[in-house]
Write a structure and sequence with these properties.
Blueprint: E1 3-8, H1 15-25, E2 30-36, H2 47-65, E3 68-74, H3 78-85, E4 89-94, H4 97-113, E5 118-123, H5 133-141, H6 152-161
Parallel strand pairs: 1-2, 1-4, 2-3, 4-5
Helix pairs in contact: 1-2
Length: 164
């Protein structure tokens, strides 16, 4: 069984994330969505809320793709998380050149730690390339329309969290 790991903070999950999840699911038999605890980023949503949103959003994608998609919280090294879930592939999404520079360094470090795990990059579709969770939260805080960037469920949860 080919297992992939798509890690991120997903605070909140966006249409860009879901695009990478759907396309990543086509590459593997099981796709684990690694939801990073990452206290340094100070997420707006709790770990439990982020996992629940991922599970809710991925239920239909799992049926549509025929690939098992599961959420898995983690706080250890990415390469150790990959080992924990049995992943042979780490799936990463790229939006711009700036993403590539950071990801290039990550691949080098991960390969130094364990060269049996391969990293696969998927370019975000053009209509999703500008989407970033940080920007979605800022737009929502300033009363902008985020419906082009997140699903209705995530929009509702984000606006409720911001008291809007």
């Amino acid at each position: 069984m080919r297992i992939g790991l798509y890690p991120g903070t997903f605070d909140p999950v966006t249409l860009g994330h879901l695009d990478i999840i759907k396309r990543g699911a086509a590459l593997v038999d099981r796709l684990v969505i690694g939801v990073a605890i990452n206290r340094d980023k100070g997420p707006l949503f709790s770990l439990e809320e982020r996992v629940e949103m991922i599970e809710s959003e991925c239920e239909a994608l799992s049926r549509e793709t025929g690939t098992e998609i599961v959420a898995h919280p983690f706080e250890n090294l990415l390469i150790d998380c990959a080992k924990d879930v049995g992943a042979q592939i780490i799936v990463r999404g790229l939006r711009a050149v700036a993403d590539f520079e950071y990801e290039y360094q990550m691949v080098g470090m991960n390969r130094s730690l364990d060269d049996s795990v391969e990293t696969v990059f998927l370019m975000a579709e053009a209509r999703h390339q500008a989407i970033a969770s940080k920007l979605v939260k800022e737009i929502a805080r300033l009363d902008g329309d985020i419906s082009k960037f997140v699903t209705p469920l995530v929009r509702e949860r984000l606006l409720a969290r911001l008291g809007k």
